[in-house]
Amino acid sequence: MLLADVVALPEPVRSVVLRQEGVASVAQLQSAGTPRRTVARRVADGRWQRAYRGVVVLQSGTVAWRQQAHAAVLAAGRGAALSHASAGYLHGLLRDPGPDLVVSVPRPRTVDPQTGLVVHRRRTMPHAAGRLRTVDMAETVLDLLGEAADDDAAVAVVTEAVRAGASSARVLLRAAERRALPHRELLRAVLADPTLGIESPLEHRYVRDVERAHRLPRTVGQVRQRVAGGWIRADRVHPGMRVRVELDGRLAHPGGTTDRDVWRDNAVLLEHDDLTLRYRWSHVAGGPCHVAVQVAQALTRAGHPTTADRCPRCA
User: Fold this and answer.
1) Among residues 184, 213, 246, which one ends one of the domains?
2) SS3 state at 280
3) Which of 5, 65, 71, 251 would disulfide-bridge 51, Cβ 3.0–4.6 Å?
4) Which residues are CB-contacts of 179 (< 8 A; sequence separation ≥ 6)?
């Protein structure tokens, strides 16, 4: 950043631009005594960069994502805040913010379209704390849920929200306030029952397509247990039945489990006499009925006679 250009601005504009990480609207610069023609000349000379209409970055060189985000909020004008994928990236719900900056503005307002800027209008604008005006996490979860292409994508949004520290109660409360919300029942199923312990789309599929569809005994999710002098966490456990299920949705080990997984399964068998069944995405998504039969066999062998009921998918 050309820090001298920012420092040369008079207060209070200088502090505002510093908070905006070197991004300013032309109106802010004009209020500080910098004429529009001076802004245009510095942009033409490459000293500054134009991010959107009426918004510039007071530097040459690479513009960081956060600077572009500040510019998007300024370009959208009064009451604007980052939302949807941009807010999801800032809250840690998404690893990739996507190619565009996404903002929301209060419903009475409209914003002229600009390349690289997506604008939504909403009735309420709950903001998160921070220098970047951003829709809060609970609203962002619901925004992303509304854009989820299918149940797997929806569960991924919800489980990432839980990992990021979103309040389940707050998300459910906000969901109840929305008239239309895709995947509403799925959201309730994952968040409203704390015993499920679902932390991934694969776990959701296991509970839905294997366990419940075939009326198997219910499992408890994410159970912590001390094994081999350390603490482990099992994905799904049949309490008191000596059978547990580990679900591996990773793509890093397509040939099977890791060495660490094998040692852990052995330790669980030796110390607790629990049988560990391990399934990957291809098993649960591609053959849930076969998985259900195998789980039933494991429970029966452990001394709990179990039969997997037929589901509509069963051959």
Assistant:
1) 184
2) strand
3) 71
4) none
What distance, in Å, lies between the first and last C-alpha atoms of the chain?
A: 65
- CB-based contact 249:281 (threshold 8 Å): yes
Per-residue pLDDT tens listing for the chain (315 residues) = 456 788 888 899 999 999 999 999 999 999 999 999 999 999 999 999 999 999 999 999 899 999 999 999 999 999 999 999 999 999 999 999 999 999 999 998 999 999 999 999 998 888 887 889 999 999 999 999 999 988 778 888 888 888 888 888 899 999 999 989 998 888 887 776 655 556 677 888 889 899 999 999 999 887 777 665 666 677 888 988 888 888 875 433 344 455 555 545 555 554 556 788 888 777 887 789 989 998 998 899 889 999 999 988 887
Same-domain status, 168 and 208: no
Asked if 78 and 155 sit in the same domain, the reply is yes
Kindly provide the b/e burial profile for residues 231-266, where b requires at least 16 CB atoms within 10 angstroms of the residue's own CB.
Answer: eeebbbbbeebbbbbbbbeeeeeeeebeeeeeebbe
Q: How far apart are CA 247 and CA 171, in angstroms?
A: 26
> What is the spatial distance between Cα 101 and Cα 119, in angstroms, rounded to a whole number?
9
Asked whether residue 180 falls in the same domain as residue 75, the answer is yes
> If residue 173 lies in a helix (H) or strand (E), which one and from where to where?
helix 168-177
Q: Is the residue at 312 inside a domain?
A: no
Domain that includes residue 270, residue range: 201-301
Query: Structurally, how many domains does the chain consist of?
Result: 3
